[in-house]
Design goal:
63% of the residues lie in helices and 14% in strands. The protein is built from ten helices and nine strands. The longest helix has 52 residues. By secondary structure, the protein is α+β, with helices and mostly antiparallel strands.
């Protein structure tokens, strides 16, 4: 299909060029339209032949292989031979082509004029060839870059806290061992989380409502894991409509808060606020740091999400992380 379109545009280009020159000559010519079309058809065929000789043969054979001397020599021969060919044909239409004001056009004048025309069509074909090659190379480069980014994103996504499953299963095992009534609810929450991570998040973007429900399920599971010793103040303001978001983008911030923050003190709960204003999302989380975690790096989780933001939301986000002695805050503004 693409090849057919390429042929169409080549034909359209030549028909347009020939029609334009016929139109310009027709107004100032005393010969019939039929004769003019025949003459232009013959000489246009020569120019087209020269154009594609360079485009399809000379450039791939010499220029693409950096055989510049051979290419220059071949062009010189083509310019001369095609100029002589045009003059030979012009003598067959002497009264129409060579006579101007009752005088015959001198041989060298016609040869030089034809040579310049040949140079123009050779330049045109070379420019087109370079333009097409650049476009194709750029498309291949973009395809490779997209494949590289897709592979990197896939790798980053596969890193999204794999130990979370093992921690959750251990907690559920402990609940089941104690015959806790919370075990079935924990299993249900975990199944919903895993279903989302394995199936829903395979798409490039998901409904924001589903991502927020995933965050809520994660928080609920943490509360079940820690019993009455997990306190988090989670608020969502604004209208949740049909906004889309890259999946599993915000969870790292919440995981980090539970991992390194103080969640068992009701006076200083983890504070999580999400505000929505159309396609603008504002995410804020704050937690008190454990005494023994004050000098611990946040790990690869946050580096992961920062890299994903760079790849998926370039120029559309602002991330501000404040790692103070006693508190840790993260603020993200994102254009969905």
């Amino acid at each position: 299909m693409k090849k057919n379109w390429s042929i169409f545009w080549h034909i359209f280009f030549w028909v347009s060029i020939i029609s334009y020159f016929v139109y310009l000559t027709l107004d100032n010519s005393k010969i019939s339209t039929k004769e003019l079309v025949v003459i232009f058809g013959v000489f246009s065929a020569i120019n087209i032949g020269l154009f594609y000789l360079n485009y399809l043969y000379l450039i791939p054979k010499f220029l693409d292989k950096k055989k510049y001397r051979n290419y220059a020599f071949a062009l010189t021969i083509c310019i001369i031979v095609f100029a002589l060919l045009k003059y030979g044909l012009a003598t067959q239409f002497k009264e129409i082509v060579l006579l101007h004001g009752g005088k015959l056009t001198p041989f060298w004048t016609y040869i030089i004029s034809s040579a310049l025309t040949n140079v123009f069509f050779l330049f045109l074909s070379t420019a087109l060839k370079f333009g097409v090659d650049w476009f194709l190379n750029e498309r291949v480069r973009n395809d490779l870059e997209n494949q590289r980014l897709a592979a990197e994103l896939s790798f980053l996504k596969s890193q999204v806290n794999p130990h979370f499953l093992f921690n959750s299963l251990n907690s559920i095992y402990s609940l089941a061992y104690q015959k806790s009534d919370a075990a079935p609810e924990a299993i249900l929450k975990l199944s919903e989380i895993m279903r989302y991570m394995l199936y829903e998040s395979n798409d490039g973007k998901v409904d924001l409502a589903k991502e927020l429900q995933y965050l809520q399920n994660y928080i609920d599971l943490q509360k079940i894991r820690f019993g009455d010793k997990a306190f988090i103040d989670f608020k969502i303001t604004g209208e949740v409509g049909n906004q889309k978001i890259v999946p599993l983008l915000l969870i790292a911030f919440i995981e980090n808060a539970f991992k390194h923050g103080v969640a068992n003190d009701p006076s200083i709960p983890i504070r999580l606020m999400i505000n929505l204003d159309g396609v603008n999302l504002h995410f804020y989380i704050e937690n008190k740091k454990h005494m023994n975690n004050r000098d611990i790096e946040s790990g690869v989780g946050l580096s992961n999400v920062q890299r994903r933001l760079q790849l998926l939301y370039p120029g559309r986000y602002k991330l501000d992380i404040q790692d103070r002695q006693d508190t840790y805050t993260c603020e993200l503004s994102l254009v969905l």
